[in-house]
Design brief:
Pfam families: Myosin_head. This protein folds into 2 domains: 2-119, Up-down Bundle (Four Helix Bundle (Hemerythrin (Met), subunit A)); 127-180. The chain contains 6 helices and 8 strands; from the N terminus they run ααββααββαββββα. The protein has helices spanning 2-6, 11-27, 47-56, 60-68, 85-114, 142-173, and strands at residues 32-34, 41-43, 69-74, 77-82, 116-117, 120-121, 129-130, 133-134. It has a two-stranded antiparallel sheet. Helix 2 packs antiparallel against helix 3. The longest helix has 32 residues, at 142-173.
Length: 180
Amino acid sequence: MDALEVVHISKGDRENVFAMLAAVLWLGNISFTAIDNENHIQAVEDEGMFSTAKLIGCEIEDLKLTLSTRKMKVVNDIIVQKLTLSQASDARDALAKSIYACLFDWLIEQINKSLVVGKRRTGRSISILDIYGFESFNRNSFEQFCINYANERLQQHFNRHLFKLEQEEHIQDGIDWAKV
């Protein structure tokens, strides 16, 4: 909360940030039930459905329809196709990812705005140092951030494991060393 306040995100916007995060989490709790023998489904009206709809500000019927059907425009006709369980799960997960990615983009935009005073930059910036050095993209996506984070965690795990093995080898060889 303090960090969001430091970058000048209003109380109302902070509440909306947490509402969207909660919606992403509630989306994961939405389940489906079969409606026919062709494996078509519909979303179950339960706490997950009600909470998600309320948090993202839509009607339950609209959310159910979004998660259980796909609309396609063919020439001048609109075709509505019922989804299978696998397709509906993918649609639910895609919606969660989209909300999260949009929230990420919005937060980055707000942080960037807070680093600018009037029309002149303050000189402050946020950069991420990864195993290959600093990266400077005009636009860094949520996916790229996740990739960088995963790579860093893997590198950290590898380094810890490697150092532990080296330290054990030093002990076996009787080498005097300072524990890292």
